[in-house]
UniProtKB/TrEMBL annotation:
CDD domains: PBP_GOBP (cd23992). InterPro entries: PBP/GOBP (IPR006170), PBP_GOBP_sf (IPR036728). It comes from Hycleus cichorii. Pfam families: PBP_GOBP. Residues 1-17 form the signal peptide. The keyword Signal applies. GO terms for molecular function: odorant binding. PANTHER family: GENERAL ODORANT-BINDING PROTEIN 19A (PTHR21364). Gene3D superfamilies: Pheromone/general odorant binding protein domain. This is OBP3. The keyword Transmembrane helix does not apply. Keywords: Signal.
Length: 142
């Protein structure tokens, strides 16, 4: 019985250390999502960079870009609600350890950020803006 426990513990440790993304892998995933969402909504690089520096002026392309980002991660539902439980599960399973604590705090603080459920782009923008405003230094979305 002890041997099964030890084997289980070893496998859990291996999976935990192997399943969590490195920072380099996380950046590659963010780049992939940006490369899908950016052209889809015709958002200029400068507009995304400005957003990452704090300019969250709402316009339809950037709002829809943010919805697309959340949708790619499966973090926004068809009824335009933030999927908080999946966000927590995904962060714990895949985000680099360095990012997890701050990211989990931000999504906790923003789990009820959606106010506009009738517009998917507005809903996505409300969540991503909230996450940024909660902790701009550690914003983790593309």
């Amino acid at each position: 019985m002890k041997i099964l426990f030890v084997i289980g513990l070893i496998l859990a440790t291996i999976c935990y250390s192997e399943c969590v993304m490195t920072e380099k892998q996380m950046e590659a995933a963010k780049k992939l999502i940006r490369n899908v969402c950016q052209p889809k909504f015709k958002v200029a690089d400068e507009r995304i960079e400005a957003m990452h520096k704090g300019d969250w002026t709402p316009d339809k392309p950037i709002m829809c870009y943010n919805w697309c980002v959340l949708n790619m991660y499966k973090l926004i539902s068809k009824d335009n609600q933030f999927n908080y439980d999946l966000a927590v599960t995904t962060l714990k399973a895949q985000a680099p350890l360095k990012l997890q604590e701050t990211a989990l705090k931000s999504i906790e603080n923003c789990k009820d950020a959606v106010k506009t459920t009738t517009d998917k782009c507005a809903a996505g923008f409300e969540v991503t803006k909230c996450i940024f405003m909660d902790d701009p230094e550690h914003y983790f979305l593309p």
